[in-house]
Amino acid sequence: MDWVKRYYILLGISNVYVIELWLFLCLSVYAFAKAYRKQPPESSKKVVFLQQRDRSDFLIYKRKNISMKIYSRAQIYEADKVTVEKEGIPSINLMERAGGYIYEWVNERLKGGQVPIKVFCGIGNNGGDGMVLARYLIENNYNVTTYVVNYNNKRVPDFLGAYDRLKSATKNWPIVINEGDELPAISPQDIVVDAIFGIGLNRVVQDWVKALFTAINNSNAYVLSIDIPSGMYMDMAPQEGDVIILPRFTLSFQAPKLPFFLPDTAPIMQAWDILDIGLDPEYLATTATDVELIGKQEVIQMYRSRPQFAHKGMFGHSLLIGGSYGKMGAIILASKAAMRAGSGMVTAYIPQIGVPILQTALPEVMTETDNFNGKVFEEIDFQTKANAIGIGPGMGTDSKTAKAMGDFLKTQKNPLVIDADAINIIAAIPELLADVPALSIFTPHFGELERLIGKWEDDFDRLEKTAKFAKKHDIAIVMKGAHTITTYDMKLYINDSGNPGLATAGSGDVLTGVITGLLAQGYHPMEAALMGVYFHGRAADIAINQYGIEGLIASDVTEFLGRAYMDLFAKPEQPPQEEG
Ligand SMILES: NC(=O)C1=CN([C@@H]2O[C@H](COP(=O)(O)OP(=O)(O)OC[C@H]3O[C@@H](n4cnc5c(N)ncnc54)[C@H](O)[C@@H]3O)[C@@H](O)[C@H]2O)[C@H](O)CC1
Ligand SMILES: [K+]
């Protein structure tokens, strides 16, 4: 060990114990420096939520796919109940979670910016969500004013819990607004959080609360609604004199709500997103709903790919019945769309006058005619062995045609696609309904629907009347519109594709062709209806990239049907990589 001592002496140290002390000190300094380096810099410290103690994944903001089920209010309350029972947590924790996710959403966008935020809370659970959000914002040094809109004296327990937590977190207590109080000034530079009414709104709002809604709407402030815009009912149409908050953005919990898709209320929803607040997945998955959204995932499940050794006889023969003098375009559009939808063969049954027109326009399509030489057909009698028949486009409502259609219906057993003038004829002669085969698909626009089922008062009334009519006659009805809704057996299927470009002449004829073409390929009538509506809308969504919304015409939709099929299996765009 002589070399060790010599080394110590070199360093000017002769005592071994002093050296050990020296080594110990060096190691301590090194360990301290290492530990200190592990501390995050002040600016990147994560916010501490109460809920973090309950769920380790709480800090991860999650946006999952939109639920394809649309739950009723009772089902959402039940989902809450099941979730808290299964997780063994008090219900206020679910409110903490919901409010915390909204805070994350806001914080991600504002990043600490000192914009004045005015949080308006009701006294139900929606107000409780607002209280939780306000507390997180205050704890994280945002510029917040909280209001309690005291529309009712029945403050619910979790609202009170969230209110108390806010009051113990800050001296900046909420301002209570009662009837008769002066309403707070709101400037266009403010951000307004609307947590006044949620899905619990079930009756007309008092006038002074409406006045507050109006003040918010007139303020030009950025409005963020929590769960549903206040004043919008979950399960009924707006009443005469109602005021609804007009949000710039709505964050809705777990699943979209039915009024987000209906013509009376959907225009209010400028933009919205769904926050997954972790309601019990088993309950959500196993609960059957009366309303479903149909998007790509649903259509993929229905789609059947073609075998390698396919021949045209395997994909059915579509027969499209329609056309009249001056309206041959409609049947041409429908016939071509049936081909593009994948029908192996297509025949058009038209008046003789239309043969040269159709044969020139569509070399792929065959024709059959009646034995008369009129501007409309007077008889429906054909040799084609059709797998599916669509009737109506451009057909006209001439009494001879109506008679021919009545006779034709009596001979039919398999589901038909019934559109346009065929619907108008049935609406005028309701006895014909008795001869319509079960599971036939009617595709009316609102005018044709009204002729068929009579007037309705509002969206909810229309849905109910149409569903009952369809059930009574054992048919499916495709209510064409901005979010086309199909009903069969008292269920509603809301289509998730399409754009205003489809509001153009002939787009309904294309839809008839697509659905008939799918039916001919052996799809179940409901599959054909839902897939047809989806592909029609999706083709238009892709086509507007080329033609624009205003420039889109019906035949463009047909041209893009193949792309809509291909899009089913297109890889989703990768989300941008997070900076490391
Ligand atoms: N699972 C979830 O989605 C969760 C949702 N949360 C939030 O809870 C609300 C629903 O709460 P609820 O207390 O049932 O309803 P509101 O907050 O909308 O409160 C309405 C309240 O007022 C009464 N009321 C109804 N109409 C009127 C009226 N016109 N005038 C006066 N009073 C009225 C009604 O009886 C209620 O008491 C949901 O939207 C979410 O925001 C949970 O926080 C977390 C889980
Ligand atoms: K709200």
UniProtKB/TrEMBL annotation:
Q: Where is the YjeF N-terminal domain?
A: 76-285
Q: Where K(+) is bound, by residue?
A: 126, 194, 230
Which residues are in coiled coils? none
Binding positions (AMP):
480-484, 508
**InterPro entries attached here?**
Carbohydrate_kinase_pred_CS, CARKD, Nnr, Ribokinase-like, YjeF_N_dom, YjeF_N_dom_sf
Reactions catalysed, semicolon-separated, are: (6R)-NADHX = (6S)-NADHX; (6S)-NADHX + ADP = AMP + phosphate + NADH + H(+); (6R)-NADPHX = (6S)-NADPHX; (6S)-NADPHX + ADP = AMP + phosphate + NADPH + H(+)
Q: Which residues bind (6S)-NADPHX?
A: 125-129, 198-204, 227, 330, 394, 445, 509
The GO terms this record gives for MF are:
ADP-dependent NAD(P)H-hydrate dehydratase activity; ATP binding; kinase activity; metal ion binding; NAD(P)HX epimerase activity
Record domain YjeF C-terminal: where? 295-568
Where does the record locate the signal sequence feature?
Answer: none
Write the record's keywords in alphabetical order, separated by commas. ATP-binding, Isomerase, Kinase, Lyase, Membrane, Metal-binding, Multifunctional enzyme, NAD, NADP, Nucleotide-binding, Potassium, Transferase, Transmembrane, Transmembrane helix
Which BP terms does GO give this entry?
Answer: metabolite repair; nicotinamide nucleotide metabolic process
Query: What family is this?
Result: In the N-terminal section; belongs to the NnrE/AIBP family. In the C-terminal section; belongs to the NnrD/CARKD family.
Q: How does it assemble?
A: Homotetramer.
Protein name, please? Bifunctional NAD(P)H-hydrate repair enzyme
